[in-house]
Request: fold
Amino acid sequence: MVDLAPTTPKGQAGLDALLTDPARALVAFDYDGTLSPIVDDPASARAQPGAVEALAGLGSQVGQLAIITGRPAGAVVELAGLAAMPGLDHLVVLGQYGLERWDPTTREVTTVEPPPGLTLVREELPGVIEAAGVTDADIEDKGLALAVHVRRSAEPASSYEKLKGPLLALAERADLAAEPGRYVIELRPRGMDKGKALLDLASAVDPSSLMFTGDDLGDLAAYEAVESWRAVGRPGLLVCSGSAEVTELADRADLIVDGPEGVLALIRDLTLLLA
Reply:
């Protein structure tokens, strides 16, 4: 079990609203580092054991569940085994920061056309990495974005610093956004982030309360979205899947849990309280 005691009055109000009217609550989660442990190989990022079953249980109690991720929506569905899990009729996956959507009813992914700048990035990215003096970075092509990972580098912190400036410059030339994360920098389309994806979904379902759980820098936009939601008097709860690598979210969260294992315990505890 986790200590369901938010440390802020706004967080407590958000939790109280969720528990009072769960059938109209919107509960959203990041994937990597939140529902899935951080791993060296992004293609191996399976969901925390028991997490999908727990989501199915919570989904029977709340109005809308969502996973909002920088990964392609289909990749998260496959990695987590969502398509094969019954009881997820209220779960939507918003991938590529909201540019893609997996619908639980049709089990299909809708997406958009990639921006032209990605062609430039694909052509120049290997040379940019080589010129920075990094020989062991991994390039992940997400279709609508490209991510450069250095977690498996011999010196990940040094490699990250060497690549940060050149990748930001490449993103600028390609008219793309550069999204830093835990030993990863992603070049992706401008104009969409997890905060906009969360608020767009909230606008569609009109929830009575809003909860978001994340762990990394890319989740800060979703935190800001919940804070803007609360600024107009609507209840919301910010949860951090805590880690030693990133502390920015913990500084702003109402409730901190211990990584994906703590997120799993949180989901189970909420489900029990709502039963």
Residues 14 and 41 are 36 Å apart (CA to CA). The longest strand covers residues 209-214. The two ends are 16 Å apart (CA to CA).
